[in-house]
Amino acid sequence: MAPLSFTRDGSVARLVFQRPDVLNALDTEMARGLRDACRSIAADPDVRVVVMSGAGRAFVAGGDIAVMREDPVANAGELIDLAHEALRLLAGLQAPVVASLHGVVAGGGLGIALSADLAIAAEGTRFNLAYANIGTSCDCGNSWALPRIVGTRKALEIALLSDTFDAQEALRLGLVSRAGQPQAADARIVRSDTMPTGRVPAARPATTSGKGWTPSGRRARSPAQKSGQPAGATAAGHPVMKSA
């Protein structure tokens, strides 16, 4: 079984993380599959919506620590580079992106979820930023997106204390769009006949502040995304949040 499934259902592109034995932890093969799928989607004007989900008991439980421990420099670097390229491609899509969340959403998995335009959390979903647990700073866009959604003070609390929180708390914080839904609830949202053609819905804010949308209707990229730096860095190359 491929670590990432990429299929088309009419104008709906579906990405399913498929390493259920390790709670869909990201390794280089999965990250490369995500990058390649995002490249294909970005080049296909017929895709009107992208849906991301996870197989088994999790959405994505972060990076695969076992893989990174094999070679902390080479493996971790390649994994992060591939994941960041995929996230930059997702950020530039004209099609809306939906994250269907359940089980564990942690580390880089939370960053992937925050990159979506809509995130739907099933009952029982658990969130944890997790980087403090391994003594490292955020990647996968977490340190850019998180303070912009919840504010700097709350983002630092989430990052430094690494507390687990549930779907209802994620909804209260604005990290997800809906909570307590069945895992298949995304079907009501991703019907291609309800999605916009070519551009995102006009109701989205015409601003680069708050929700990350520009007047053209495309998602605003972070300074790091524009400069090609890792998604967790500022334009000056410094992390947005302190290392845990």
Task: Outline the structure in words.
The structure is a single chain. The protein is of the alpha/beta class and 244 residues long. It has eight helices and ten strands. It has helices spanning 28-42, 65-70, 74-91, 108-114, 142-150, 152-161, 167-173, 223-227, and strands at 4-9, 12-17, 49-54, 58-60, 97-101, 104-106, 118-122, 126-128, 165-166, 178-181. The strands form two sheets. It has a six-stranded mixed beta sheet. A four-stranded mixed beta sheet has the order 4-6-8-9. Strand 2 (12-17), helix 1 (28-42) and strand 3 form a beta-alpha-beta unit. The longest helix is centred in the middle third of the chain and has 18 residues, at 74-91. The radius of gyration is 16 Å and the shape is globular. The model is unreliable at 198-218 and 220-244 (pLDDT under 50).
Please describe the topology of this protein.
Blueprint: E1 4-9, E2 12-17, H1 28-42, E3 49-54, E4 58-60, H2 65-70, H3 74-91, E5 97-101, E6 104-106, H4 108-114, E7 118-122, E8 126-128, H5 142-150, H6 152-161, E9 165-166, H7 167-173, E10 178-181, H8 223-227
Parallel strand pairs: 2-3, 3-5, 4-6, 5-7, 6-8, 7-10
Antiparallel strand pairs: 1-2, 8-9
Helix pairs in contact: 1-3, 5-6
